[in-house]
C-alpha cells in the first residue's frame, strides 16, 4: 500500500527550494520520528512553510471533476475510486493541514486524484514517507533571468 501526505507549501518556499525538495522531505521525516521538544520545533517549522488547505474548495472540485466516474464514491467526507475492476484503488481524505491518499494496485486511481489537485493549486508537495518518495504535483517552472 502507498500512503501519501500532500501539503500546500507557501509559494515563497516552494519557489526558493525548487530542485531541493529533499529538504522538505527530510523535515517531514524528522518530524515523524521526533518526540519531545524536537517534535514541537519541527511542527512549528512545518506550520511556517505550509498553507492551510481550502477544504470546501477541494471537496467541490473533487465532486465536480470525478463525481461522474464509474467506481467513484463519496462517504463521510472521504472519497474513493476503484478502477479496472479493483486493480487500482485509492482513498482520499481532506484535512485543514494536509490531504491524505492511500492507494493500492496500479497507479490509475491515485493519478485521478493527483490530476484534480494539480489543477487546483500549484504548490502541492506529495510525500510517501514509507517508500521515501516525494515531488510536486505540478512542477514549478524555474524563473529565467536574461
Envelope shape: globular
Quaternary organisation: single chain
Give the rounded overall mean pLDDT: 91
**Helix content, binned percent:** 25-40%
N to C succession of SSEs:
EHHHEHEEEEHEE
> Please, how many helices?
5
Global Rg: 16 Å
Terminal residue distance: 46 Å
Q: Strand count, sense and closure of the main sheet? A: 8 strands, antiparallel
**What is the count of β-strands?**
8
Strand content: 25-35%
Low-pLDDT stretches are 142-146
Q: Structural class, judged by helices and strands?
A: alpha+beta
Descriptive report:
Strands 1, 2, 3, 4, 5, 6, 7 and 8 form an eight-stranded antiparallel sheet that branches. The longest helix has 13 residues. The N and C termini lie far apart (46 Å). It is built from five helices and eight strands, in the order E-H-H-H-E-H-E-E-E-E-H-E-E.
List the topology elements.
Blueprint: E1 2-9, H1 11-16, H2 21-33, H3 37-49, E2 50-51, H4 55-66, E3 72-75, E4 78-83, E5 88-94, E6 99-105, H5 108-120, E7 124-128, E8 133-136
Antiparallel strand pairs: 1-2, 1-6, 1-7, 3-4, 4-5, 5-6, 7-8
Helix pairs in contact: 2-3, 4-5
